[in-house]
Structure to design on (138 residues):
């Protein structure tokens, strides 16, 4: 069980997460690439609780029928991916935890990567999510 605090770049959105980290991954799906300006979304996948401690600048975008994405309206930081079916299942951007060290477990949706991307070989590559939770909620 982990308990971490994080924030966006400008500090207008702050939060804590409590729960188990299921996986730390880089996602190359089309939505993540578009949301992150062409790069992968590097996130920690949690099963637990997301508590917003300062959220006036947080905006949720319904990116699909299965999930929503959260970002800061002040600085534009991409922060969250959250399942609609199971809100206790969510990903948080690794950049939101400036004082934490993470090691990637997987590169996911690499079959959707752009031709300019070359995912490093520092973790296994998968053509889909591979998370047991994502199979239920995606």
């Amino acid at each position: 069980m982990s308990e971490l605090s994080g924030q966006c770049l400008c500090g207008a959105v702050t939060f804590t997460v409590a729960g188990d980290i299921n996986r730390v991954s880089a996602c190359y799906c089309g939505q993540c690439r578009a949301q992150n300006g062409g790069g992968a979304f590097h996130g920690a996948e949690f099963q637990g609780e997301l508590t917003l401690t300062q959220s006036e600048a947080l905006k949720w975008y319904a990116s699909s029928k299965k999930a929503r994405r959260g970002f800061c309206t002040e600085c534009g930081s991409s922060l969250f991916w959250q399942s609609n079916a199971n809100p206790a299942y969510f990903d948080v951007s690794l950049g939101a935890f400036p004082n934490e060290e993470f090691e990637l477990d997987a590169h996911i949706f690499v079959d959707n990567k752009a031709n300019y991307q070359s995912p490093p070989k520092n973790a296994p590559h998968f053509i889909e999510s591979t998370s047991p939770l994502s199979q239920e909620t995606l």
Q: What stands out?
A: The CA atoms of residues 70 and 131 lie 21 Å apart. The two ends are 23 Å apart (CA to CA). The chain has two helices and eight strands. Helices lie at 30-35, 132-137.
